[in-house]
């Protein structure tokens, strides 16, 4: 009873400010433009454009171009649900709304778990938005060059489903991060630095060596790509994506990160005195 | 009609590191009365209220509502309404949505939101973002939040801060009305004059310690009475007072004598043949008693 009330309060909190739709809109445009643009670029390169002159390398043999393009929804778009989840927590600290929140629901564990559940659902919504964008614009670009869009393949739709799940898990990871790092600015910097710089560099560097490549499979972004089953990184990396987890392992890694950070955040910042 | 329950502090202590923010605080706040929780800034008022509301964990002691700690109230918003000093609003949320969030968390009827907005006079601004609100409007919104669950107990931290004279008049009537309905009303302030006209009882703390509690009128008798007396020949007057065994001290205009009856001083002067130019009882007033209490607090 208390939980469902707390859950509906969390949804009201989220949908009564502008953050969610601004993030959703930017996500939609960002992954859509990237998927459409890359689709057009590869399409042009693969169908007899002057590839060497344009500096575009030929595609690796056997690569599913459509999967790489569609999966940009999560492989580059995952930062958006993370931010949404993190801000759902850090915003309460920043605007001191923890006070009325805990006055209405003094059992703090209920509030935090309601946030996780709410963010899983809204993260899935973000997933639907992002994948609709990449599949829509990516397929349009591929189709324009008469390349296979694979829209009639059940594998494609299974990937979309796993991609939506990945985005949901990422939003939960965001909640954990926010609970662990309640400062909104610090959380923002960590998300940007880790997702846009640290993890890409680590994945690139580790791929040169078999041992490090084995470890790098467990990096959150890599685990997410394993869950989805395709990634932009398989094109960008010299070693390809030989070292990946099974999709369900990738999902479990993300879930574990979300659970561990949320529980750790509960015992550090969330239970603290609200002054 | 919701029935108020007493608020009980029993040996509540809060230590922040080496600092004793609140020290062994014990008092009871009765229903049907407005109680002023007074003390200078930094005395520990807000920390005490936050402990009462389960937001801050006391180092020791308990604070309860009719014997039940806040965190164990089955649906706290329907039992206790609290507004704390900090502006706890998301600036991008409208007043209606702000209240809607907490009404949902407490499982209250959505209609309550409009009712309480009307009660505090914010109906016409309900769909405006709180970021654009004045301090006075925020105070009213905080107050609206306390009324959401129609609780029997109200805990308000500095509710008068930032209100214009009209707002102050309004809140005084409002608090009186809530107490008259049988609710328990606890209002904190760092200024006695701010709440003097609306409180029945006072609880005064200084440096984290209780220094006085009782009805407002009890403040009057608290200070030692003094008489102010002056003479064209002050030395002769002083000598006469000393001879009569009355302790005295120089004051701004004349002498301050530790006595309650001006007639007694007049007689001493007359008997000694000393002319007097001023003779009256010093009006200490509630504010003076309050100030002397909080200045001497911690040593009692």
Automatic annotation (TrEMBL), chain A:
Record flagged with keyword Membrane: yes
Q: So where does this one cross the membrane? A: 20-47, 67-89, 116-145, 165-194, 246-267
Instruction: Name the keywords, alphabetized.
Output: Membrane, Transmembrane, Transmembrane helix
| Protein name per Swiss-Prot or TrEMBL | ABC transporter permease
Automatic annotation (TrEMBL), chain B:
What keywords appear on the UniProt entry?
Answer: ATP-binding, Nucleotide-binding, Transport
What the entry lists under InterPro entries is as follows:
AAA+_ATPase, ABC_transporter-like_ATP-bd, ABC_transporter-like_CS, P-loop_NTPase
ABC transporter domain location: 7-232
Picking any one GO molecular function of the record gives: ATP binding
Q: Which domain of life is it from?
A: Bacteria
Q: Can you tell me which family this protein belongs to?
A: Belongs to the ABC transporter superfamily.
Query: Record's PANTHER family?
Result: ABC TRANSPORTER, ATP-BINDING PROTEIN
Give the protein name, as stated in the record.
Answer: ABC transporter ATP-binding protein
Provide the species name: Microterricola pindariensis
């Amino acid at each position: 009873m208390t939980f469902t009330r707390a859950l509906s309060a969390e949804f009201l909190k989220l949908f009564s400010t502008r953050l969610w739709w601004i993030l959703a809109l930017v996500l939609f445009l960002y992954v859509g433009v990237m998927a459409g643009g890359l689709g057009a670029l590869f399409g042009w390169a693969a169908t007899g454009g002057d590839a060497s002159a344009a500096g575009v390398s030929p595609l690796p043999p056997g690569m599913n171009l459509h999967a790489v393009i569609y999966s940009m929804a999560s492989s580059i778009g995952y930062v958006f649900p993370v931010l949404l989840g993190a801000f759902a927590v850090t915003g309460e600290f920043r605007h001191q709304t923890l006070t009325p929140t805990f006055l209405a629901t003094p059992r703090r564990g209920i509030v935090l778990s309601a946030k996780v559940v709410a963010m899983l659902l809204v993260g899935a919504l973000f997933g639907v938005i992002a994948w609709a964008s990449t599949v829509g614009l990516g397929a349009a670009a591929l189709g324009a060059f008469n390349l296979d869009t694979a829209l009639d393949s059940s594998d494609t739709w299974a990937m979309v489903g796993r991609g939506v799940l990945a985005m949901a898990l990422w939003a939960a990871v965001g909640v954990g991060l926010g609970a662990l790092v309640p400062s909104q600015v610090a959380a923002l910097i960590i998300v940007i630095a880790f997702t846009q710089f640290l993890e890409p560099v680590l994945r690139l560097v580790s791929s040169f060596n078999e041992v490090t490549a084995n470890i790098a499979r467990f990096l959150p972004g890599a685990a997410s790509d394993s869950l989805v089953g395709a990634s932009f990184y398989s094109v960008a990396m010299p070693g390809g994506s030989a070292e990946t987890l099974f999709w369900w392992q990738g999902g479990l890694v993300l879930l574990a990160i979300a659970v561990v950070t949320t529980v750790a955040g509960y015992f550090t910042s969330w239970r603290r005195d609200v002054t | 009609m919701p029935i108020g329950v007493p608020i009980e502090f029993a040996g509540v202590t809060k230590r922040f590191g080496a600092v004793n923010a609140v020290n062994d605080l014990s008092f009871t706040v009765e229903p049907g009365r407005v109680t002023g929780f007074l003390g200078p800034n930094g005395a520990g008022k807000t920390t005490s209220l936050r402990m009462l509301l389960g937001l801050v964990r006391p180092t020791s002691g308990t604070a309860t509502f009719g014997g039940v700690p806040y965190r164990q109230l089955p649906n706290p918003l329907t039992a206790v309404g609290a507004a704390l000093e900090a502006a706890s609003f998301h600036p991008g949320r409208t007043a209606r949505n702000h209240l809607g969030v907490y009404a949902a968390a407490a499982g209250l009827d959505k209609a309550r939101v409009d009712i309480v907005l009307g009660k505090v006079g914010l109906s016409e601004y309900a769909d405006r973002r709180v970021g654009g609100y004045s301090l006075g409007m925020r105070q009213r919104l905080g107050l609206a939040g306390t009324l959401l669950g129609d609780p029997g107990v109200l805990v308000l931290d500095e509710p008068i801060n930032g209100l214009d004279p009209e707002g102050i008049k309004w809140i005084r009537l409002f608090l009186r009305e809530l107490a008259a309905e049988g609710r328990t009303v606890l209002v904190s302030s760092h200024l006695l004059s701010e709440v003097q006209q609306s409180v029945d009882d006072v609880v005064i703390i200084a440096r984290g310690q209780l220094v006085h509690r009782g009805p407002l009128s009890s403040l009057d008798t608290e200070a030692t009475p003094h008489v102010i007396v002056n003479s064209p020949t002050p030395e002769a007057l002083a000598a006469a007072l000393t001879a009569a065994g009355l302790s005295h001290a120089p004051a701004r205009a004349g002498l301050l004598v530790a006595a309650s009856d001006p007639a007694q001083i007049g007689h001493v002067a007359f008997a000694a043949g000393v002319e007097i130019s001023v003779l009256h009882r010093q009006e200490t007033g509630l504010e003076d008693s309050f100030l002397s209490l909080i200045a001497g607090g911690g040593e009692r």
